[in-house]
Structures are given as C-alpha cells and as structure tokens.
Design a protein that fits this description.
Blueprint: E1 2-6, H1 10-21, E2 28-32, H2 35-42, E3 49-53, E4 55-56, E5 59-60, H3 61-71, E6 76-81, E7 97-102, H4 106-118, H5 127-137, H6 142-148, H7 153-167, H8 171-184
Parallel strand pairs: 1-2, 1-3, 3-6, 6-7
Antiparallel strand pairs: 4-5
Helix pairs in contact: 2-3, 5-7, 5-8, 6-7
C-alpha cells in the first residue's frame, strides 16, 4: 500500500512519516508539502492512502482529495486539520474519507485510524504474545521476559518465534518493530 502524506509544516510531515512508516502494511511513503507537488507525485504513483492537510500554501486540500479520488476511486483519505469544526465533507468524497483528525490530537488519533484501516498483524497476537511483544519493545531480553512473566526461557523463545512468524519478521526485525510499536502506540 502506497501512502502519500501532504502537509505544509515540514516537522509535522516528518513526524507523520515516522508514524506511518512503522506500519508494515505500508510499502511506500511519499511526502509533499504543497498541492502542486502532491498532484505531480500522484501522476507517477498509485496512491492507496492519503493523509492530507486541508490548508496548503498553493491550494485547497478538499480539491486535492477530489482529484485523487477521481484518479483512484478506491483511495482511502485521512484529513488533518486545525479546525475540524469547519470541515464539510463533500458528497463526492463520502466513500473515501475514513477519518477527520484534529491536528491538536493528531498522533494518537492517526495511530488509531491507521490501525483500524490497516488492521496490522500485531493485532492478531494472543494476549500473552502481545505482552511479550511489548516487553521486547521495552528492550527486555528473553531471560528478562521469562523472569518478569514467571515463565521458562524456552517458553518465551517459543512465543518469540510464533510472534516473528505471525508478523513475518526475523529476530532483529522483531526487536525493531516492537520498539517502534512501543514508541508510537498510545498508552492505555
């Protein structure tokens, strides 16, 4: 799945890219800071998901969303705005817009929305596997996890292998993914 991020504030754009890139279901992330740049990119790539700001320096995000939806009727759109109360969903975008996110709460809301849309593989982990996955993300070794959970080291190793298989990751990739998940996941 190819995601296009359109946001004129570079620091926010980079932070959004970090969050989106952590989802293994996203195969490519493109970034644009302006309407014209986003249009040019959309002519060379197939955009499956777009996260866009409504207020761009050279155009309107709604107009961009309409153009992208016309090009790809299956596109999923997440709108970012500092004034969500002012947003009116155009009829031609009703099937494409998946969320309207207030920039004030953007990171937690974006993570939740992407998890809903993409249904990441880590959501298929059992409760015990999720617990171990979180401990891996906290930098705990297999021995540490076994001690914390009062389990045998071999049991934890079996869980790690099962988690890696479910997520289609190698051991090193599992540690990286668990660490990234811990960094971007909202705390309950």
């Amino acid at each position: 799945m190819h995601c296009l991020l359109v946001e004129d504030q570079q620091i926010l754009l980079d932070l959004l890219a970090t969050i989106v890139d952590a989802f293994t279901e996203i195969t490519a992330v493109s970034k644009a800071t302006a309407y014209a740049e986003a249009v040019a990119m959309s002519q060379t790539i197939t955009v499956d998901l777009v996260i866009l700001d409504l207020h761009l320096p050279d155009g309107d995000g709604n107009d961009l969303a309409k153009l992208l939806a016309k090009t790809n009727p299956e596109i999923q759109i997440i709108i970012l705005t500092g004034a969500p109360e002012d947003f009116r969903n155009p009829p031609e975008l009703r099937g494409s817009i998946r969320a309207l996110i207030d920039k004030q709460q953007s990171f937690e809301a974006l993570h939740y929305t992407l998890s809903t849309i993409l249904q990441p593989a880590y959501q298929t982990l059992t409760p015990r596997q999720s617990e171990i996955f979180e401990l891996i993300g906290a930098g705990k070794s297999t021995k540490d996890i076994a001690r914390i959970l009062s389990s045998a080291t071999s049991t934890i190793e079996s869980h790690r292998k099962a988690i890696a298989q479910k997520l289609r990751l190698s051991g090193a990739e599992l540690v990286r993914e668990a660490s990234l998940y811990r960094q971007i996941s909202p705390r309950q």
